[in-house]
Amino acid sequence: MFRNRLQKETVVVFTRYPVAGKVKTRLVSLLGEEGAATAQRLMTEHLLDKLANLKQIKPDVKVLVHYAGGTHDDIGYWLGKRWKTIELSWQQQTGSGLGEKMKNAFHGCFRSGEERVVIVGSDIPGIDQDVVSEALEKLNSTDCQMVLGKALDGGYYLIGLSKEAEKHLDLLFHGVEWGTDRVFQQQQTICNRLNVKMKILSHVLQDVDTPEDISVFEKEIGIPQRVLISPKLSVIVPVLNEAGQVEECVKDIIQKMGDKHQLEIIFSDGGSMDETVEKLNDISETSSVPVRVIHSEKGRGMQLNAGAAHATGDYYLFLHVDTKLPENFDDTSLKCLDIPGNIAGAFKFGLLYSDKGACSWFSRQVLEWLIWLVRWRCRLFEFPYGDQTLFISRQNFEKVKGYPNYPLMEDYAMVEKLRKCGHIGIAHGDPSLTSARRAEKHGALKIIGINACFILAYKCGVHPETLARWYYGNQQTVLKKKK
Q1: Model confidence band, residue 356 (pLDDT cutoffs 50, 70, 90)
Q2: pTM for the whole thing?
């Protein structure tokens, strides 16, 4: 895995698996247990992103996570996929206290052939690639065996050792009063007593442990504490000539939402020629939650991106106008996104049949088989489609640069992008229910066959605009390819 490395350097990240009530307990009074766990998760991910930047500058650097709490599989689900490109590895911390855990981490790295090792904590969001690079450069000089990064609270946020200092490890942390404001000074005293050549980094940073530190989190992570306590949800619905659907859609969203004070609904209209916009304007005047209509170029990818650009929420939920959401969809979707490793999520797949008995017995059996097949596809391959209502944080939506501007297959292409960055979780509980009207009208096998052919054509390289022309026919104008 790490062959032909010219520099034997390792950065070890000390972190904890983010379980509510088990991590960052001093932040619970401000953020609540879930919010404190989310803060822990976001700080760890932020640090790993910075170390990924370091790997671009120093490709020989090895990144290793030493974790407490959770299982090996939990950590793998959380970190393995998103940081696969930096060849991240992880193992459980060993030892009874912080000093012993660090000593064991250093010993393990040196025994595996490393020459310079740096340990950093995950709760100092000011650490970036420049800080770690400075530490490694100092250790690479002949007059330095150890580096320390001083923290504002009297401790230190980084410690690095060269191979020459390994002989002092048994005594290096002996007598340090961990958790006090004397840690940095005591560590300096021990180094002087052992004649360890030490240098101090130029950056003095602050960790995030107490409510008074939350401004550091907000500045470095870019997420206000409000998001950790009570996030706002934007439901984004693309529409085109759906005058007969929009009123029922709004009613269903509001009825199924748990915390209506943290909701906004945005309809992204692609140029409706019927009364869709007029109806939505009327609804917005009397609705108990904010309902807005924005105008977009025609095409689902463009409409979804336009809706997100106008959204003020912290999380986005992309809904088809003929899909019914499960009860308390806000709570179940946020819980899904809180699972470490999930970059996005969707609901289980379900179908909503008409009351007119339009679907034959045979078609009904075929569709029930389809529901079963889709659920297994999501379980095995994490590949939901747009009719399962994708949801994602604003931060992650911006990270993947939104939907492709496709008039068709935008959901398929979006899921392909997301799967490269992390897991797509399926929310527990009831499914979202998509209207079976097309299958009832044209027959289940025909619709399934058409959809499969379009997916195959897309995978074979047919452009989505061409597919949209085939799908919609001459009755709908397809946008020209953007330059």
Answers
A1: low
A2: 0.91
